[in-house]
Amino acid sequence: MEAAATVFDERGYEAAKLTDILQLAQVTKGALYFHFHSKEDLAHAVIDAQVSAVPVPMPQVSKLQEFVDIGMVFAHRLTTDRVLRGSVRLTLDQGGNELSRSGPYREWTELNLRVLNEAKERGELLPHADTEEVAPLVVGAYAGLNLMSQALNNPADMDRWASSLYRHLLPSIAVPAVLAMLDMEQGRGARALAAAEAATTTA
Amino acid sequence: MEAAATVFDERGYEAAKLTDILQLAQVTKGALYFHFHSKEDLAHAVIDAQVSAVPVPMPQVSKLQEFVDIGMVFAHRLTTDRVLRGSVRLTLDQGGNELSRSGPYREWTELNLRVLNEAKERGELLPHADTEEVAPLVVGAYAGLNLMSQALNNPADMDRWASSLYRHLLPSIAVPAVLAMLDMEQGRGARALAAAEAATTTA
């Protein structure tokens, strides 16, 4: 899986060769076909890894901080998790029509919508904020910033773009008292993960 | 060019076949090779068409309205211009590494930056608004919403997404008096084009 994700991440779906994946994984063709029947099968498994990696938000002082953390933690994990990067590339690649790429968009939208609706119930959102509109807006915008940072050869920039997206979007949906307390700065993903780890250690 | 853009739009770069383009254009291989030496050549020409289609903003009451119109007019033109759609797909496709896809991101960012800087000079932006940050943010987010609407098989949705993006972004950068006067609603692209046409007819 890791070898497949690496090759998909570097080459994209169309250009990825099974022989390269076999070589990188150091397995025989027979061993691979025991688990996966085709390149398409492998690609689906890598894409599914992204969907199953959709996190359970870590509890924060506000639901809007949990909403922001979804994207900030993901941006941080993109720098460390190869399978996630391969999965994102397969999702954003439009080349091979046989892969369904709508799955991750829907999963991420559902997660964002759920947390936004909780924020709304707690009175953290401005009255006119439409969660059904904002959830897919953030998912689509986030995907594009990811794609742009790859096209401009700065994949590590995603932490900066995610921060920028939230800082410019949240003022139009958050009540000022909550807005003022949000951490949307670069490095938030790493900080949130470190805090969660520290909490687990003390618990 | 139109035939090539159509095939690239439907299949993407990797899967597009020169024979399909020849058939759709109803030209011989010899005639095609007189103008273009390869599929890559053709793709570059289609991508360049997008860059040369980067519009000169039509004068509006505020520079921020011109900024909004860049994206709203483009969203409208995507529904009517096949070459533009093919070009966008080639830009967003990550498949063929031999194509440089950073060009359009840079061109659109430069255009947005120029108009935003004019808005800033006229006092239409909040003091903290960073035009160097906002210009690429809008371009990347816009590209992703385009990609998502294609992945979810609703390419016509771009008018709605562009409107949503601007309505959620502008409150964090525009001074309230200008913000209140902006038309960022769906159909703005068609309205702006119709107004420009009417102005040309009377002139």
TrEMBL record, chains A, B:
Molecular function as annotated in GO: DNA-binding transcription factor activity; transcription cis-regulatory region binding
DNA-binding region: 17-36
InterPro entries, sorted: ArpA-like (IPR047923), Homeodomain-like_sf (IPR009057), HTH-type_TetR-like_transc_reg (IPR050109), HTH_TetR (IPR001647), Tet_transcr_reg_TetR-rel_C_sf (IPR036271), TetR_C (IPR011075)
Domain (HTH tetR-type) ranges: 1-54
SUPFAM superfamilies to which the protein is assigned, alphabetical: Homeodomain-like, Tetracyclin repressor-like, C-terminal domain
Pfam families registered for this protein in UniProt: TetR_C_13, TetR_N
Top-rank lineage group of the source organism: Bacteria
Family annotation (PROSITE patterns): HTH_TETR_2
Keywords: DNA-binding, Transcription, Transcription regulation
Name of the protein: Gamma-butyrolactone-binding protein
Organism: Streptomyces purpureus
